[in-house]
Amino acid sequence: MRSVVDIWGDLGDLEEDQTMQVISRLFAVYESDLQRDPDNSEAPDFFRKLDQVLSLVCECNSNRR
Asked: Cα 35 to chain center, whole Å?
């Protein structure tokens, strides 16, 4: 497995549309995992953290306006 630093660097090099593709694919992977195995503990954790990040970003964006 590649290091977090390498992955972070690759994410930073992506174009905006590619970043959306990565996020969409990651979402689909965890959604599929959860459908296949409702007792999967990683998928709900991913969605919980994603929800927290979305809330923080939306809150920061509205505070800047």
From this structure: 18
Termini Cα distance of the chain: 41
Round to whole Å and give the CA distance between 12 and 14: 6
The CA distance from 27 to 65, in Å, is 29
38: which 2 tokens? Answer: 């409702």
Q: Closest Cα partner for 16 from 27, 4, 24, 7? A: 24
pTM of the model: 0.77
Question: What's the pLDDT tens digit per position in 12-58?
Answer: 999 999 999 999 999 999 999 999 999 999 999 999 999 999 999 98
